[in-house]
Design a protein that fits this description.
Layout: H1 42-48, H2 64-75, H3 92-102
Length: 104
């Protein structure tokens, strides 16, 4: 990312946007599901944030980022301040793993 005084901190996380190992026809996706270790460091990152505005972004901005953002805002007790895209559909596995890492 280019230098920007408005960017306080960045946490890079990398995992697939999957909830199951197989598609509807029983064919394996061939990519690993998100794992608990993929979320290591999330709690420390969030605990150290000293800002009111948080941007969480994934490739499409619909599922992984929506799940992580929802978990973060719940952890911070600011669910009423969460703004998701209208068509957002938080990935339930990602949400569960993020909540687990955050201790909620």
């Amino acid at each position: 990312f280019p230098e920007n005084p408005n960017i306080v901190s960045i946490l890079h996380m990398k995992f697939n946007d999957l909830t199951e190992e197989y598609d509807e026809e029983g064919i394996p996706y061939g990519r690993p599901l998100p794992q608990p270790d993929d979320f290591f460091g999330l709690k420390d990152f969030v605990a150290e944030l000293a800002c009111d505005i948080l941007l969480v972004q994934c490739w499409e901005g619909n599922s992984r980022s929506a799940a992580v953002a929802t978990a973060i805002y719940e952890y911070r007790g600011k669910e009423d301040e969460l703004h998701l895209k209208r068509d957002a559909c938080p990935n339930p596995l990602v949400y569960m793993l993020a909540c687990r890492e955050l201790g909620i």
